[in-house]
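User: Second chain of the day. Same drill as before.
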Amino acid sequence: MSFSPPTRRLSSTSSKEDLINAYEAEEERIINHLSRKLEQLREEKIDLENTLEAESESHVNRMARQLTALRLVQQHGTSNSSPSASPEIGLGFRSLVSGVHPMEPSAETMLEAMRRENEQLRSKLVETERDYVRISRLNEVYREELIDHRRRVSYSRVEARL
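Assistant: Same format as last time:
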């Protein structure tokens, strides 16, 4: 009969430890999930930055080629020769200057499209960075809670031994 209360205490302590262990396991699962999500956001941010850089470089190169073509046409125009008479100026240059060909939009149209796309990419990058900061802060809160709970568990285990 005197064995019943200590068994209850042992059972109660074991139950508390099981509960604490389950809580810690859940916290660790959440932290691992958030860490994976954070790493995924970091990789996505890097991919977005690389994509933005590559597209910007591509747009700059395209604009430089178009500008070179326009300068070439302008030079030939100032030397009193028509663009169609010059063999160096092909169909692409003439259509670029005339703006008639639908597959080759004007420089202003291209510049405006690039500005819109650049703004969209910047907005997406800002949004991703905000998510990254939010998840980093949440991860830090969870980490602090986990440390606090582990301290309490180790403290309660020390008390239980005494």
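The chain has one domain: 33-161.

User: Great, on to the next one.
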